[in-house]
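Usage

Read records sequentially. Each one opens with the input sequence:
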Amino acid sequence: MSGLRKERRDVARHREAILDAASHVFAEQGVHVSLDAVVEAAGVGRATLYRHFPDRAALLLALFEREMAAVSRASIDVEPGQALFSMIAQSGRAAREAPALADAWRAVAADHPQLRARQREFVRLFEAPLAAALSEGAVRPDLKISDVLAVIRMVIAASRQEDADEDQTASRVLDLVLKGILRRDQ
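and closes with the structure output:
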């Protein structure tokens, strides 16, 4: 194996370790925790962190992009009319797994043009699945993208309930909310 290939694998492994650690540390301590906590949790040097992510915003941006990719993947291997529901459910799971990231999404993006751009991309992720669900009659005909975003916010809020069984509570709320956007004769 060439040294270059091994180096690339190490770079990718370090990047993922940093993202995993940041997601965990941010969930436990909030997104404004010292990045030294991320370095320690990732088991990398400070220079490695900053080589991949020059500042906190770059790290948050990468985490947002990773979550967006997971939401987008939720539409794969499902019927086009069901992709919207799958993506909404994945948004709730992501918020439950990384609540600090969801908070940062709202708070940090207001001051950061790249993060605002990612928010717009996130909204666009739902446009085609919404159109498919509408054309298949899977959802009520008056459903708009702003309604989908409101549903996502509700699902995210439900996913944060301090309950003995968070998964069951989140699933129940998701079920209730999604039934609200179904076509009325279903």
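Summary fields computed downstream for this record:
- Residues 24 and 98 are 7 Å apart (CA to CA).
- The chain has ten helices and no strands.
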